[in-house]
Amino acid sequence: MTQLLLIRHGQTTWNAERRLQGQQDAPLTEEGIRQAHAASGRLATTAFTAIYTSDLGRAAHTAEIINVPHRLELRQRADLREVDLGAWEGKTASELERNETEADLLAKWREDSVANRPPGGERLEELQARVIRALEGIAGAHPDGRVAVVTHGGVIKAAVSWVLGLPLGNQRRFEIGNGSITRLHLEPGRSLLVTLNDLSHWEGE
Is the pTM of this model over 0.90? Predict the structure, then answer.
């Protein structure tokens, strides 16, 4: 059995501005750095076999902070990136709502993110398929290990939906906070959600 600890990156400037981020990058805020340090402190005595991270800067920076007590080689994977939000990346909802066509698509996307997607964006099925391949690959490389995976909210939601057998449309019904820890156990033919969105180490607002 492989234990996977999925950690969402700390808050970014675009998170704070409520901008759609996707695969574009923005730096961690001071609060995001504190969130990363809180997660690092929580996991300081956890013996990790390996630490993987998305190759996007916000996840890599968070992983560097988490890795300080462990001094392991950080292994970057592009397939752990957030969902691609296409032409909407970097925009706020209020900016999109100024255009009638974009406003209509945004409303449909909020209602059903499986049937609808941003212009040029990635389908949730595509996101989940690459996330499953990534996590199964990591578990296969560390069949009896405990592995940290620093990644993104959409990636973690896709992984949890897969483990629980939930339709992808249910993703908006649970939250994955910045700096949170979600624990999965994976083995051939069996997967288990142990904890979801654990923020007990974070005392921020």
Answer: yes
